[in-house]
Each structure stands twice: as structure tokens, then as C-alpha cells.
């Protein structure tokens, strides 16, 4: 998939400079320079949903890092993996902070990808609502079923099954519910001031 070609509607002749782009997201009033566990978890989950939406999602994250001139923060695949492994629910959890700047960069990229996938996200949400209203099994729709199956597979392979938060999501039904909720969050990111509103929501209950 040629990500560069597909993002042309969102390109600009002069991409915003790094400080200006990240300054669009306010610094949260939290102690220290690292993100709370809840914030690290939510960012990783939203990226997991993106990876389930389309093949090559992780490559798209790196491509957007370059397109948006965020390579100084998200340098390569290993660097991205380390950031995401700051999520305490990960199997390969790394005891490293996720800095506010790193979190901002990941959120900016997630929101730009969500914009590119707006039509797909809307269609999947509409399909889910129709099937839920008719009380039909979700697996009867191939597109929705594929997304849910990929999300479950990603989640189970990357999260630590011994963590209490993961144990609470041990059933396919719970994981499907989480996957649908994440679609709603991605759609939220595409709305007016969606990036800023999503960013602020990541720190609800965490600010001093």
C-alpha cells in the first residue's frame, strides 16, 4: 500500500514545523515529564485498532512520522516499539517513560491516519449499529468480522494475559466491544478539533 500517495488530501505545500504542530496539543497539568499508565495504554490501543483496520498499519505510522516531520521523535521501528511497550499491559513491557512529546507525536499520527480512514471507520460503525439493532451475529458481515478478528489476534499476541486489565478482556465478546469502542474514538479524532479533544481525554482524571 502506498501510504504517501493515499494521504494527498491532507498534504500541505509547507508542512507545519515540529514545534508548531505539537504546540497544538496543550501540555497536561501532571507531575513529571512522563505520561500516566492510562494514557500509555489508550495510545497503544488506538494504534492497535489502526493496525487492525488495514494491513501495514505499523508501516503507515512510520511513514506518517516522516511525512509530518516527526522522525526526530519516532526514528524507526525499534524506537516505535519501545514507545508502545511503555504500555503496562504489554507482554514485553519496558519500564521506560513515554514522554509528553512522544505521546503528542503518536497522537498526531493516529489522528492523521484516522482522517484518511474516515470513510472506512464510518462504514464499520454503521454496519455494527445495523447488526446490533437486528440482533445479528457480528461475524455475518465479512468486513466487520475481519476487523474484529485482526484486533483480537493483535491484542492477544501483544498483551500480557496475567495482567488484571487483560484478564478482564479475556472473552472474544469483551474484545469485540473494545474494538468497536476504539472505532468510535478514531471517528472522534476526525471531528472538529478532534485531535485536541482526544488528546485532552487521554488525561481525564490524571491532571493535578
From TrEMBL:
It holds the Pfam family DUF3038. This is DUF3038 domain-containing protein. It comes from Dendronalium phyllosphericum CENA369. The lineage of its organism: Bacteria, Bacillati, Cyanobacteriota, Cyanophyceae, Nostocales.
